[in-house]
Amino acid sequence: MKQYAVDLGLDTEEFNTCLDDGEMAxxxxxxxxVGSENGVTGTPAFFINGEKIVGARPYADFESVIEEALAS
Length: 72
Fold this sequence. Notes:
The protein is mostly helical. The protein has four helices and two strands. It has a two-stranded antiparallel ribbon.
């Protein structure tokens, strides 16, 4: 992870401090648990009005689900 931060040109001091102190570990774990409970096995995953959309999908896929949700 730290090498990715370097490769991306992030503020590595800030990134390393955030990663190492574990302050957000419980929140990340809770988010992972909610995802698992809802059948999320990878990213990206989206839920629109309860419908799961998985993977890198074209705009049209989102548009049709959104339009359907708005019509109901």
